[in-house]
Amino acid sequence: MKKKVICSVLLGLMVSGQLVGADYIKPKKDKKTGISYYDLNKNGHLDIYENPAFAVEERVRALLSQMTLEEKVGQMLTSLGWPMYERQGNTICLTEQLVREIEEYHTGSLWGFMRADPWTQRTLTTGLTPALAAKASNMLQKYAIEHGRLGIPLFLAEECPHGHMAIGTTVFPTSIGQASTWNPELIRRMGRAIATEASAQGAHIGYGPVLDLARDPRWSRVEETYGEDAYLNGVMGAALVKGFQGEFPRTKGKVIATLKHFAAYGWTEGGHNGGSAHVGNREMEEAIYPPFREAVAAGALSVMSSYNEIDGIPCTANSNLLTGLLKERWQFKGFVVSDLYAIGGLREHGVADTDYEAAVKAVNAGVDSDLGTNVYAGQLVNAVKRGDVQEVVINKAVSRILALKFHMGLFDHPFVDEREPEQVVASTEHLELAREVARQSIILLKNKNELLPLNKKMKTIAVIGPNADNIYNMLGDYTAPQSESSVVTVLDGIRQKVSNDTHIIYAKGCAVRDSSKSGFQEAIEAARQSDVVVMVMGGSSARDFSSKYEETGAAKVSDSHISDMESGEGYDRSTLELLGRQRELIREVGKLNKPIVLVLIKGRPLLLEGIEAEVDAIVDAWYPGMQGGNAVADVLFGDYNPAGRLTISVPRSVGQLPVYYNTKRKGNRSKYIEEEGTPRYPFGYGLSYTSFNYSDLKAEVVEAEDSCLVNISVKVRNEGSRDGDEVVQLYLRDEVASFTTPFKQLCGFQRIHLKVGETKEITFRLDKKSLALYMQNEEWAVEPGRFTLMLGGSSEQIYQQKEIEITKRYTFKM
């Protein structure tokens, strides 16, 4: 009955195409100051917290002084957003659940209000289109302001790892592909595009970037990471943060970045999602923390605590991590949000017997917001009244959240312009950017006898494989439902690229995981008739509506229902071979002795042993996004010279794992009885349609009393027959140190474009932070001694190296 009343009350606010956000509630004008403001507490005059002329700190104090304990705790709740509305056609109604959230819990934030996917059961017809999302978010804010005692607007947080996870938005390559561009400026531009689209629909927070190191490709969430290297992760993460947030305070089209997952979530045990992290404090300081530290330094204003534990302490209850390191040592100014239901998950860890104990541990550790509100909503008020949590702890957490609401302009401009989404979401500019990110992410792993690029006037091309013409297998996890016309598959891209005289024969052949061979004969016959075979194989993170899901949203592995999904959150693996009949289909087509180009669409490194010898060219596209088919075709036919480089090593077997490049001196570099100890393809690897030469490496050491610099230069020349990009990679080795150090460590890179015959001088500058070693008690030091600089095209292709010497000791904290 109550739900019907809500809908009828909101009839005047239903989607009409006529209303703009500001029309929902008219601001008032203060007679004394002439300031336009929203009378949020409905008392008829301009309060300090309503007055934009006051500093944010003063507005926060003024608002906090008027709040009850229950209202404060409400600001620490981040509820699930999608149950707060219902859509029927183009009519949007707010639900009874939203009424309860505002009236009973004073909820301050929602997560995933615009999210659509099989887990939320929001489809193209029941979810929010961009235009409807803007209208619905305005309805939300109007309700929150009018029905909350103090009129505090809602924070809306959305998943934004490779595009806003909502219907109709631009889908970019997943993070492992983004990192493969080795182009942080491009990723900053991508972040700006994502933020523009999400913000236009009413979002304020974007979940991303994921800064976990991916050291085990069996882990289901490798695709969400930037790979195995701390330095590269930090550079890419900082770039996305700057794209999301720009310069703070907020200007139009920005969202707060939420760093995930703090910390060591990707340092998994056995490749299991959320598994224990066995890692020492020194490795935490030198490998796990640096990407987060760099992103915080870049201005990130939200951090998510992770599910896992480190050395017996779950991250969501770790005060040394969340308060001592993050908030005090790094001077982080934003707020900490738990991963979904992670606070209640402390009971599963066995460190809390009840939700009450879990809430006390989490909030005292420094978790400011409970994602899912399964614990804080029912426990924190009692915890304060019983003295187990001091109200000052609550005040600090709420102040962090409110300060960002003020900075984001929610109190002064709570509504969005409902006409804007049609202008910016999935705009031509953003689709072109998605294609460029995809093109720059593509890695050429093999090109025997220069088979690639292909001739556009070739007579017959066979396009075969489960990922050749499947829109969802192009996109990766955390992707909303798509219209058929929104995604360009590899088959689409090839068809658009070749001449009218070229005959394209398509055959799926097999599925990613299903064991059926019913399509083999059609595929083999297609290959038999062709001049070249393009086989599009790999994996999938595409969720479907028949799958089952954990409470946290991770997919459950099912034996009764075989979808294509073999990657994505919850789909950890014990092997890394191509699943289903894919390997067998490659072998059967190979018997025809036709030239074969293998295009890999996938979310994690897969084993290529045996396959590598049976195909002539290998193109790794990861999950390239909605413009991925065009990008792959651009590379296959030479309209784009590939320059993507691996950011995670490709192993020869699961038995090698872990096989990351920057192991310690006595690390995993020795030979096994059965095989080499080195990866099939190393970190930083990737081929080009041209060739490059390195020469004239120079290094100058400049030492002062408190600092040291190393100025480095090298010349790079394009000696091939095509214009192209090279990724110049700088590695460092500390020859003798007080503690063990990596055999080599990336400390700089540049992606440069060189025309045929062109030479460029590339420069790098290393400061003491680049040369330092973690000592103890938060102290870092550059020790006197020898360092080797290595420059080249991958971690194993070093073309120039030079030894330098530091004569003084430099100590500092960071």
UniProtKB/TrEMBL annotation:
<feature type="signal peptide">
    <location>
        <begin position="1"/>
        <end position="22"/>
    </location>
</feature>
<dbReference type="InterPro" id="IPR002772">
    <property type="entry name" value="Glyco_hydro_3_C"/>
</dbReference>
<dbReference type="GO" id="GO:0008422">
    <property type="term" value="F:beta-glucosidase activity"/>
</dbReference>
<dbReference type="GO" id="GO:0009251">
    <property type="term" value="P:glucan catabolic process"/>
</dbReference>
<protein>
    <submittedName>
        <fullName>Beta-glucosidase</fullName>
    </submittedName>
</protein>
<feature type="domain" description="Fibronectin type III-like">
    <location>
        <begin position="726"/>
        <end position="795"/>
    </location>
</feature>
<dbReference type="Pfam" id="PF14310">
    <property type="entry name" value="Fn3-like"/>
</dbReference>
<keyword id="KW-0326">Glycosidase</keyword>
<dbReference type="InterPro" id="IPR051915">
    <property type="entry name" value="Cellulose_Degrad_GH3"/>
</dbReference>
<dbReference type="InterPro" id="IPR026891">
    <property type="entry name" value="Fn3-like"/>
</dbReference>
<dbReference type="InterPro" id="IPR036881">
    <property type="entry name" value="Glyco_hydro_3_C_sf"/>
</dbReference>
<dbReference type="InterPro" id="IPR017853">
    <property type="entry name" value="GH"/>
</dbReference>
<dbReference type="InterPro" id="IPR001764">
    <property type="entry name" value="Glyco_hydro_3_N"/>
</dbReference>
<dbReference type="InterPro" id="IPR019800">
    <property type="entry name" value="Glyco_hydro_3_AS"/>
</dbReference>
<dbReference type="InterPro" id="IPR013783">
    <property type="entry name" value="Ig-like_fold"/>
</dbReference>
<keyword id="KW-0732">Signal</keyword>
<dbReference type="InterPro" id="IPR036962">
    <property type="entry name" value="Glyco_hydro_3_N_sf"/>
</dbReference>
<keyword id="KW-0378">Hydrolase</keyword>
<dbReference type="Pfam" id="PF01915">
    <property type="entry name" value="Glyco_hydro_3_C"/>
</dbReference>
<dbReference type="Pfam" id="PF00933">
    <property type="entry name" value="Glyco_hydro_3"/>
</dbReference>
<comment type="similarity">
    <text>Belongs to the glycosyl hydrolase 3 family.</text>
</comment>
